[in-house]
Amino acid sequence: MEKFNAIASKAFNIELEKVRDTLTPKDIPEWDSMNYLLFISELEKQFNVSFSMDEVLNAKSLGDVKKALQTKK
Amino acid sequence: MKAKDLKFEDIKKGDTAFFTVTVTENDLKKFAELSGDYNPLHTDEEYAKKTEFNGRVIHGMFLGALVSRFVGMELPGKKALLLKETLEFKKPTRVGDILTVQGTVIHKSESLSLLELSMEIRNQKELLAIGSAFVRVLP
Question: Is residue A24 part of a domain?
């Protein structure tokens, strides 16, 4: 999931090597609602998938988003 | 001037729209007043003539404002909420240019009610700026 991490790194302005599944909005200052929407939209575009509203709202960490993405592959 | 009122479900990937506008001396003057950017490259012809641009150049963010107009008035129009805009300036824009501001939907997120638009701004002769706009479509 290097591509996932690269998208997260860019969306939230964090160094690629610091991207972890356990990261939550509390750990990432730039994880605000707007950046999160743009992150999800970029994942959809890059992986050619669609998330449901529940998946978007229920994800509490990067790992949750990654899990939701993996169910679509 | 009335904003179009497109619903999210009526918009498809690949949809495109545009408007044209002529840049006037008054536009430049008003934008300088509004932004407070009186940089001589925009406002002092004598100074600007001595630069590599050989004359005054319209503020880049004037084009940014036209992208705002595009999403707020054309696509999607009334229900637009602009989240992010990027612009890359390729060539200078001048007073008198007739601009075509065109946007195309390149991604549509159903769960987020969000559109990604690719933007192009041209004058009569050439491409002046390219960019993107991320827009939520409110219910």
Answer: no
